[in-house]
Amino acid sequence: MTSKLDQLKTMTTVVADTGDIDAIAKWRPEDATTNPSLLLKAAASEAYRPMLDKAVAEARRHGGSDAEQLTVATDMLAVLAGREILNLIPGLVSTEVDARLSFDTAGTLERARRLIDFYDRQGVDSSRVLIKIASTWEGIRAAEQLEKEGIRCNLTLLFSFIQAAACAQAGAHLISPFVGRILDWHLANSGRDSFPAHEDPGVLSVSRIYNYYKANGFNTVVMGASFRNTGEIEMLAGCDKLTISPALLQELQDDAGTLDRQLHPGNANTSDRFGSIDEKLFRWESNEDAMATEKLADGIRRFTADQIELENRVRQLARAA
């Protein structure tokens, strides 16, 4: 019997949820996705030191204020890491826009275009890059414009059905609904200490979104993310893509049990219906979902904190150079 990981790969594209180059080289996923938290962890390794040095040097050549040079350096570091990752995988890499721009459509557009320009300057085919943007109303509007320009987007920090529906209507290439963080909220607020995998609120959320997309002919890719255990992954076998941490990849590799497909486009059905989603409807539905409201805000704060810590690390390196 082949491992559950090998079985999963026959029905779902497996994506590595890490910025660790060694881990990506080991697991050889189809795609990879990073965020400030993952890059911060990876930047502590010696493998990233040459990239940090180069990012700082590029920022100095760019000029501008110290604050501007710092944002250039961290963007360049993300691009250099993305380039290195793309040398190891056949597919796509996601690179995230600064979370502090989550409510700034114009700022998100400017930063996304700069990231793509940096990739172009590094000789990377930008069709292999997804720009990762928070699934706020402003972020979704930015993604809609970027998709029209041929820049594909990964809408992240997605917790609610209205976010998913709005992303599909905007023509986003891919969404990353956060399974584990949804579970975290329900464990903290339900009085329960566990959920069986088939009742896991994060699993149910992604399954609902997947069925809605497939039943209505939306082309947006569904990529489950932020898993807490392999049971969640197994219940989403057949989802378009799943981004999985190295630790959970190892658990799946070590398990020789049978993995049954749970999601299939041919079996998709839904009772969900939405007309055109405007800002008023989006904000009202978001406000009605306490879990999604809290987890989106928490996610933006966490990514911002890690972005600031990453900038502090780059600043210290620049001063020491």
Automatic annotation (TrEMBL):
State the GO CC annotations.
Answer: cytoplasm
Highest taxon of the source? Bacteria
InterPro entries associated with the record = Aldolase_TIM (IPR013785), TAL/FSA (IPR001585), Transaldolase_1 (IPR004730), Transaldolase_AS (IPR018225)
User: Which CDD domains does the record cross-reference, listed alphabetically?
Assistant: Transaldolase_TalAB
Which Gene Ontology molecular function entries are recorded, alphabetically?
transaldolase activity
Pathway the protein acts in? Carbohydrate degradation; pentose phosphate pathway; D-glyceraldehyde 3-phosphate and beta-D-fructose 6-phosphate from D-ribose 5-phosphate and D-xylulose 5-phosphate (non-oxidative stage): step 2/3
Q: What is this protein called?
A: Transaldolase
Q: What is the lineage of its organism?
A: Bacteria, Pseudomonadati, Pseudomonadota, Gammaproteobacteria, Pseudomonadales
